[in-house]
Amino acid sequence: MTIQFNLLIGSAILMISVWPMLLSAQTSKVRLSSLQSQIQSCGVEVEKLNEIKTFDQIYKGISKYTMLSEKIVYRELVYKFKNERRKLKVINNEIEIYKIGDEDRHYKMPIEPRQKSKTVRAAISQYILNMKIESDWEKITEERVGGLQVEFVRDNGNMSQLSLKFSKADSKLECLIVNQSEICLCNK
């Protein structure tokens, strides 16, 4: 009888000490990373917030805000064309092409008339089609539905900066790479 009583008491003590852990395991929420919590604190609604780890994933996560307009603020693309180095510059959606000569001197080249009628993106694609790209840097701004203003920088295809701001909100999500880590801060 004493052994059964001690076992019963021991089981009760064990249950009392383990029960809170079992309850918290069932009700605990997924912990957000610092990147995810900054996105949430800025009021930016992104799809699958708990899965976001990179700037590209943030950018893909805002796809529910349909793009209204896009502007290439600045783009500099160096490429080879028939053993000749060229630089394509876009400043505020205006294209300029330069031949890179000796000692990195730049000689402005005329824009072909058939390229002028296309969109800026289409013209760039036409110029660099089948070319060997040496470097590519661009800064883009977008206006999206809901008053979302997006600005980002890509360096050789990799997003290195991202900024999201709702025109009605006082906060702005600023993301950049610091010491090879992608960091976001909500500026209010």
Key words describing this protein structure:
188 residues; nine-stranded antiparallel β-sheet; alpha+beta; 2 domains; single chain; 41% strand; 29% helix
Separation, N- and C-terminal Cα atoms: 67 Å
How many helices? Answer: 5
Please report the total strand number as a whole number.
9
Number of domains: 2
Please state roughly what percent of the residues sit in beta strands, choosing from under 5%, 5-15%, 15-25%, 25-35%, 35-45% or over 45%: 35-45%
Uncertain regions spanning at least 5 consecutive residues: 4-20, 22-27
Q: What is the CA-based Rg, rounded?
A: 27 Å
- What order do the SSEs take from the amino end to the carboxyl end, as H and E? HHHEEEEHHEEEEE
Largest sheet: 9 strands, antiparallel
Can you tell me the overall shape? elongated
Short description:
With 188 residues, the protein is an alpha+beta fold. The chain has 5 helices and 9 strands.
What does this structure look like?
- The protein is an alpha+beta fold and about 190 residues long.
- The protein has five helices and nine strands, in the order αααββββααβββββ.
- It has two domains: about 1-30; about 35-185, no CATH class.
- The protein has helices at about 1-25, 35-40, 55-60, 115, 120-130, and strands spanning about 65-80, 85-90, 95-100, 105-110, 130-145, 150-155, 160-165, 170-180, 180-185.
- The protein has a nine-stranded antiparallel beta sheet with strand order 4-3-2-1-5-6-7-8-9.
- β7 (about 160-165) and β8 form a beta hairpin.
- It is elongated and about 60 Å long.
